[in-house]
Design brief:
The strands form two sheets. Strands 2, 4, 5, 6, 9, 10 and 11 form a seven-stranded mixed beta sheet that branches. The chain has a four-stranded antiparallel beta sheet with strand order 1-3-8-7, with no helix packed on it. It is an all-beta fold. The radius of gyration is 14 Å and the shape is globular. The chain is 0% helix and 47% strand.
Length: 129
């Protein structure tokens, strides 16, 4: 069974840190890129970050640049999102997703949900005092 499983969410105070993990199993084809998205109540899902499997190219939303870091460990089949200096506006459900199809310019598509083939169930992140 092919699946993505997120973990690491929780409640944290503003300025705090959290580390999210996304483990995938059952995938017989190597994914091309993995992304993190989030959705706050009443808002649309938005792309947070993306990393390509082969060369580790990374992409970030402007709202998280300098605070979040995406990484991957191909041997462990895991993608990570290290979140620092968290703000209340970072609150939401965080989803990881994988894209199988290559793209000549991933920087132009990584924010698009439709590019991704497989999604996890999400993990809740709440930033509050």
């Amino acid at each position: 069974q092919v699946q993505l499983v997120e973990s690491g969410g929780g409640l944290v105070q503003p300025g705090g840190s959290l580390n999210l993990s996304c483990s995938y199993s059952g995938i017989t084809l190597d994914y091309y890129a993995a992304g993190w998205f989030r959705q706050a109540p009443g808002k649309e899902r938005e792309g947070v970050s993306c990393i390509t499997r082969s060369d580790g190219s990374t992409y970030y939303a402007d709202s998280v640049k300098g605070r979040f870091t995406i990484s991957r460990d191909n041997a462990k089949n895991t993608v990570y999102l290290h979140m620092n200096s968290l703000k209340p506006e970072d609150t939401g459900t965080y989803y990881c997703a994988t894209a199988l199809n290559t793209h000549p310019s991933p920087k132009n598509v990584w924010r698009l949900s439709v590019w991704y083939d497989l999604w996890g169930q999400g993990t809740q992140v709440t930033v509050s005092a």
